[in-house]
Write a sequence for this structure.
């Protein structure tokens, strides 16, 4: 081979070496800039143990994915109050003393008093149902006298109800003299009687007519007799 041929061949070999080196360098640089994404098995396990499928929220620590932790609902104040109300008994002649007395003002009125004589609280629900002598039905109730809340009686405490015997102007029909009074006590619903009724002897010459009415139980004596 001539000298010129050898020079040309050497040049071609050198050019090929430079090309190969450049390509290798470009491949290394490319691998360093854009590494292939890799997810470890530990990362996959952590992701699966902290996310609840389909919930979009994290599970409580220590709780297997997809299995909600067992919880005990806390008692709400309303629920606790309801249970306490269920245990509360109504006031009646079985746990209370009942008396009836005349008052000077307003005229034609009596005051009915119930006093808790037991060792536990009782509730004076709604209004007393009052029957004079052998009447077939209780007298009417003064609806405007509804208290703001049920009257609760601790041992020794009293509640009051006013009894209007007759109209002040004498316009009531079927006036007569009554001798006995039966007091029935309302249950929690206010629609039925409960417990033991009280049987009382009325003051002498108690006159009643068809306008007779009783108030709801009140915690204050003056609230009971103003009707």
């Amino acid at each position: 081979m001539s000298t010129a041929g050898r020079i040309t061949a050497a040049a071609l070999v050198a050019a090929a070496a430079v090309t190969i080196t450049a390509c290798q360098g470009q491949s290394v640089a490319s691998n360093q800039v854009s590494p292939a994404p890799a997810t470890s098995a530990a990362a996959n396990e952590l992701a699966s143990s902290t996310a609840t499928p389909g919930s979009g929220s994290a599970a409580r620590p220590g709780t297997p994915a997809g299995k909600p932790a067992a919880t005990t609902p806390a008692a709400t104040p309303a629920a606790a109050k309801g249970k306490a109300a269920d245990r509360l008994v109504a006031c009646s002649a079985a746990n209370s003393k009942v008396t009836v007395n005349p008052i000077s003002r307003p005229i034609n009125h009596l005051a009915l008093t119930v006093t808790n004589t037991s060792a536990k609280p009782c509730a004076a629900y709604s209004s007393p149902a009052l029957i004079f002598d052998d009447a077939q039905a209780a007298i009417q109730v003064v609806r405007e006298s509804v208290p703001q809340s049920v009257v609760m009686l601790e041992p020794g405490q009293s509640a009051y109800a006013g009894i209007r015997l007759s109209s002040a102007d004498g316009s009531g029909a079927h006036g007569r003299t009554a001798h006995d009074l039966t007091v029935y006590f309302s249950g929690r619903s206010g629609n039925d009687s409960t417990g033991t009724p009280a049987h009382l002897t009325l003051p002498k010459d108690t006159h009643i007519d068809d306008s007779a009415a009783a108030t709801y139980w009140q915690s204050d004596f003056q609230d009971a007799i103003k009707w």
Remarks:
- The longest strand covers residues 193-208.
